[in-house]
Amino acid sequence: KAGVTQTPRYLIKTRGQQVTLSCSPISGHRSVSWYQQTPGQGLQFLFEYFSETQRNKGNFPGRFSGRQFSNSRSEMNVSTLELGDSALYLCASSPPLEGNEQYFGPGTRLTVT
Amino acid sequence: QKEVEQDPGPLSVPEGAIVSLNCTYSNSAFQYFMWYRQYSRKGPELLMYTYSSGNKEDGRFTAQVDKSSKYISLFIRDSQPSDSATYLCAMSARAPGNTGKLIFGQGTTLQVKP
Fold it and tell me: For A43, which residue in chain B has the nearest alpha carbon?
């Protein structure tokens, strides 16, 4: 089975711009979670989507949003970028059983200048 | 206080040593426990997954969960230089309200020297 894929792998944006990141989960996985990873804060949960619905959300400002499509692919959007948004953004998918074991993609490294 | 505490290290051991990595947590609702390995500039890779208390073994890796002490461990036997990476513990509570959300430790950087 192919793993979780994320595009693009690297992005450089300037403050005030917006960005969209994409994630394709493992085939058969319907839950997709997004995380932000920084050296100072570690891995922090952004939100989770299941069957095109956001089921859970972390403590991030409204500038961070996401959506999921009928084929379980997901996108996250960050508007009005700030320098502090520079991070590795990770997407993870879960198999259709409760347990929350998650399989991560390689991440998108976003640099905001 | 963080929900999950993990010593960031770095931890340096000689090749062939037994490595012990640990995390403590404060939320008694956590039921699912995972260990991930992350190489530099890569995404985390799931190594071990455990539900509730007990031990689980997979090759050179053994995961232990002690819910009474709120303490989890990962043991690596016969460590190899290729095991050099950051190891992250992660845990979650049962749904509802906790779907898709893992709480991570800060990660322990491990270096295995040849």
Answer: B104
Sign (positive or negative) of CA dihedral A4, B107, B86, A83: positive
CA distance A80 to chain B (A): 25
pLDDT under 70: residue ranges of chain B: 97
Q: For residue B104, what are its two tokens?
A: 């991570």
Nearest C-alpha in B relative to A95: B100
Provide DSSP, B3-43.
Answer: SEE-----EEEETT--EEEEEEE--TTEEEEEEEEE-TTS-
C-beta of residue A3 within 8 angstroms of C-beta of residue A103: yes
pLDDT digits (tens, 9 = 90+) for A40-92: 999 999 999 999 999 999 999 999 999 999 999 999 999 999 999 999 999 99
B13 vs chain A: nearest CA distance in angstroms?
A: 23
Instruction: Give the distance from residue B78's alpha carbon to the nearest chain A alpha carbon, in angstroms.
Output: 26
Query: Cβ contacts (< 8 Å) between A35 and chain B: which residues?
Result: 102
Return the pLDDT at A95. Answer: 86
